[in-house]
């Protein structure tokens, strides 16, 4: 006789599945359909024209630039922090783990305001920056700082549980055979964590491109200079340029869909790799 995994009746299971599907349809599918339908409402020509404006292109290029800077920085931090936490014991280890989770508990707007208080014209380092003709707030460096702060938990949080599960046996075996620390990292640790690392990079990149709150505070909303795609969408919508706003928003929605597909593929590959290893 086939054993059932749960004791709920078929009617209860059907209701739960229907509730989950209805929730996803209302909060996920319906907004996506609305974004793409509004973007193409005036025709493909208007859509392309909205994307091809100088301000839209500047926002797209800035978004890609911020992601290209912040994601590698988070990869370096995530690997270093994960390696330290899972492979060594040291004073302050629990504090480091807590600090990694800090961006999850702090509002992005508050984190942006903190950078303004530190590097703004009247901030803690504002006068020193002005004397040396350095500009952070209302410029690209401030956007990078805010984005890195918001996204730095993603890589580390994917790697820490994975590396804890893997333990130290492979690294200790490599070291006992005469491998150096770098050789052990490149040939043992990195191959073991590659799927989790790619998954963390994917989530980090998606959040970096879609961040609004912290970037909004530090950017200054300078059109063509410090507006990322989410900020450009807000400006266009406030100006009643709905086609332009939804056209740029559809690019972000497309990024979300690509991220979802890539996430599913990586999860499948990771499960396949784990199953083959066991």
Please give a handful of descriptors for the protein shown:
single chain; 278 residues; mainly alpha; 0% strand
Could you describe the 3D structure shown?
The protein has 278 residues and is mainly alpha-helical. It is 79% helix and 0% strand. The protein contains 14 helices and no strands. The mean pLDDT is 87.
The class by helix and strand makeup works out as mainly alpha
Distance between the termini: 29 Å
Number of helices: 14
Number of strands: 0
Order of helices and strands: HHHHHHHHHHHHHH
Oligomer: single chain
On the 0-100 scale, what is the average pLDDT?
Answer: 87
Roughly how many Å is the radius of gyration? Answer: 23 Å
| Shape summary | globular
The largest sheet, given as strand count, sense and whether it forms a barrel, is: none
Strand content: under 5%
Helix share, percent: over 70%
Low-pLDDT stretches are none
Write the layout of secondary structure elements.
Elements: H1 10-39, H2 44-51, H3 54-87, H4 93-100, H5 102-105, H6 108-119, H7 126-131, H8 140-151, H9 153-166, H10 169-176, H11 181-210, H12 213-219, H13 229-238, H14 242-277
Helix pairs in contact: 1-14, 2-14, 3-8, 3-9, 3-11, 6-8, 6-12, 8-11, 8-12, 9-11, 10-11, 11-14, 13-14
Would you summarize the structure shown here?
The protein is mainly α and 278 residues long. Helix content is 79%, strand content 0%.
